[in-house]
Amino acid sequence: MFKRSIEDPAGFWSDIASEFYWKQRWGDKIYDENFDVRKGKIKTEWFKGGITNICYNCLDRNIEAGLGDKIAIYWEGNEPGLDDSLTYSQLRDQVSQVANYLKDIGVKKADAVIIYLPMIMELPITMLACARIGAVHSVIFAGFSVESLTQRIIDCKPKAVITCNAVKRGSKTIYLKDIVDAAIDGSAQNGVSIDVSLVYENPVALKRVDTKWKEGRDIWWQDVIPRYPTTCPVEWVDAEDPLFLLYTSGSTGKPKGVLHTTGGYMVYTATTFKYAFDYKPSDIYWCTADCGWITGHSYVLYGPMLNGASVIVYEGAPNYPHAGRSWDIVDKYKVTIFYTAPTLVRSLMRDGDEHVTRSSRKSLRVLASVGEPINPSAWRWFYNVVGDSRCPISDTWWQTETGGFMITPLPGAWPQKPGSATFPFFGVQPVIVDEKGVELEGECSGYLCIKNSWPGAFRTLYGDHERYETTYFKPFAGYYFSGDGCRRDKDGYHWLTGRVDDVINVSGHRIGTAEVESALVSHSKCAEAAVVGVEHEVKGQGIYAFVTLVDGVPYSEELRKELIVTVRKQIGAFAAPDKIHWAPGLPKTRSGKIMRRILRKIAARQLDELGDTSTLSDPNVVNQLIELADS
Length: 631
Ligand code: WTA
Hints:
Elements: H1 2-7, H2 9-17, E1 31-34, E2 43-46, E3 51-52, H3 54-58, H4 60-67, E4 71-76, E5 83-87, H5 88-104, E6 112-116, H6 122-132, E7 136-139, H7 146-156, E8 160-164, E9 167-169, E10 172-174, H8 176-189, E11 196-200, E12 218-220, H9 221-224, E13 237-238, E14 242-248, E15 256-261, H10 263-276, E16 284-287, H11 294-306, E17 310-314, H12 325-333, E18 337-340, H13 342-351, H14 354-357, E19 366-369, H15 376-386, E20 393-395, E21 430-433, E22 444-450, E23 460-461, H16 465-472, E24 480-488, E25 494-499, E26 503-506, E27 509-512, H17 513-521, E28 526-536, E29 540-549, H18 557-570, E30 579-582, H19 596-603, H20 620-628
Parallel strand pairs: 4-17, 6-7, 6-8, 8-11, 11-12, 16-17, 16-18, 18-19, 19-20, 29-30
Antiparallel strand pairs: 1-2, 3-13, 4-5, 9-10, 14-15, 15-23, 21-22, 22-24, 24-25, 26-27, 28-29
Helix pairs in contact: 5-6, 7-8, 10-11, 13-15
The structure holds 5'-O-[(S)-ethoxy(hydroxy)phosphoryl]adenosine.
The site of 5'-O-[(S)-ethoxy(hydroxy)phosphoryl]adenosine has 20 residues, from helix 11, strand 24 and strand 25.
Family: Belongs to the ATP-dependent AMP-binding enzyme family.
Organism: Lupinus albus (White lupine)
Catalytic activity: acetate + ATP + CoA = acetyl-CoA + AMP + diphosphate
C-alpha cells in the first residue's frame, strides 16, 4: 500500500476518497501542488471541484449505514459518577438544532465562529454544527487567557462566540464567561464587535442566577437550542472550502491561524485514524486531548467519527480525584485504544505503578502517544506497566499544520523501537536535510522536511499567505519544513529529536534538548527533565537542565553528580549538563507542554523578562523555581 501511495498518489487517494459521500465527484485533477517557492506561489489542493460535507460524512453517512443506535460519544464528567452518552442519531439531532440556530442568527457559509468551551459534549456538537452549515469553526482552548482570546477574536472576526458560564476541572472552578466577556470588550475597543454570545449553562459549576449577564448580547444555550428542529439540511461545500482555523504559536508573538479545508482533511484524518490505530468497529476509543488542540480536532472528533467509532470525551483532569482515575475510566468503558501524551505518561509514572496495577486494563489493545518525543524509559513504562507488555504503541509524529499523522507505526506491522515514531504514513515522503537543504541519505541526522503534499496538509496561514511561505517553505526551498530535528537510523527508523529551535550548540556540537532530557529521565530517580541552552563563555552555549524527581526522593549533591554522569554515559561528555536545577514542578501549559521560553529566562536569570505566565496550568511553579535557582 505504501509503495502504491508514493508511486500513484492520485489512484491511491481517489480509491480511498470514493468510500466517502460526495454530492459531486472532484474534477480531473485529484491534487495540484507546488511546494517549491522558486516555481511560484505555494499551493496545495486536493479533490478540488468535489462537493461534500464532513458533518454529513461523520453522521448521516454512518446513520444510513446502520450505525444510528451506536454510541458516538461517551461523556465522562470531572466528578466520578457524572456521565452521559449520545448515539449517532441523537448526536445528529443535537447538531442539527445548533446548526439551525446558527443559521437563524445569520451565520452563513464561510463565516467564522469562535468556540470557547471545555470538554463537554456541546464542544464537538458545536464544531459539527458549524461544519454542517459550512461555517468555519475556530476552537480556542478554554485555558487561554483574556488577551489570547481577544487577539484571536480580532484576527478572525467571528459572527458569534460560543462558551459556557463556568466549568470545574479537578477541584478548580474556571469562570469561562468572565474571560469571554472581557475578550469581547477588548475586541470592541479594537473595532471588532461581537453581537451574539451563546452561553451554555453548566449548573455543576455555576448557577444561572450567579452568572453576570449582558442583555441583548448574551443568550442561554438551553433557552434557544431545544426550540429548533432536529433536522437540518447540509450545506454542500467544495473540497477546498475552509473547514476550520486553529491558532498555534509560532516563533514570533502573533499566533498563526492554521487553515484546514474540507475534502483532503476528511480523507486524511479518517485514513490515518483507521490504520495507525488498527481501528475495528467494536473498539472503544479514548484520546485524552482537548478539542481545543489539533489532536482533539483530528482524533477526538473527525477521524473517529468518520469511521463510526465510539469515542470517550472526558471533561476532567487525568489524575483527579486520584492518580488512578485514567485507569478507572479505561475499565469503566472497556477502552481498547488509548491515545495520550508523553507528559501524561511521565506524570502517571511518577505517581507510582500501584495506581495502575490495581486496575484491570484487559480491554486495552493499542496504546498511542503524541506531542513530543517519548523518551525510551517512559515508552517502556507505558508498554510494560500500562499495556502489560502486550499492546503495541503508536508513537504518532505530526503537527497542527499537517492535519494528521505523518510518521507513525502501524500496530503490529513492523518491530517497534522504544522512542521511535518509525516510518512515514501512506503518501508521505519525509526527507532529512542538512543546513544547506541538501537531502541526506541513509543513517543521518538533520532537519525534517516533507517533499510532497498530502491531503491533510494546511493550505495557508489565515490572512497571511506570505508568512506561510516564509515560515515553512523558504528555509529549505523545495520542501515543507517541519521545524523539527530528526535522526534516521541504519534500519530507516525515524527518531524525532525535538524542535530545532530547541537545539543547543555546545562547543560546536549540536545537541537536541530532547536527547539530554531522555538521558536524564533514564535515571531511576528522575521523573521529568527540561533542558534549555544558556550562554556560556567558553562553549558558546551551555546545557541547563531542570529536573523533577520521583515522588519522595530528596535532591542531593550526590544525585546531582549521578545525573550528570548519566548524561555523559548516554550521549557523551560534551552533552553533560552545566547546571542541574532541581524543579519540584515544571511550568506547563494546560495542554501539558513545557513552557521552555520561561525556563530559558530563569536559566539566564532574566527574571524581569518572564513574560506572560497566565496560560500556565500552575503559575506558582515559576516562583518556586526562582527560589531554588541557586540552591
Ligand atoms: C512535536 C501536535 C516527537 C513536534 C500533534 C511537532 C512530536 C510539534 C510528536 C507539533 C511525536 C508531536 N514525537 N515530537 N510523536 N508529536 N511532536 O502542532 O515537535 O501541537 O513539531 O501538534 O510537537 O505540535 P502541535
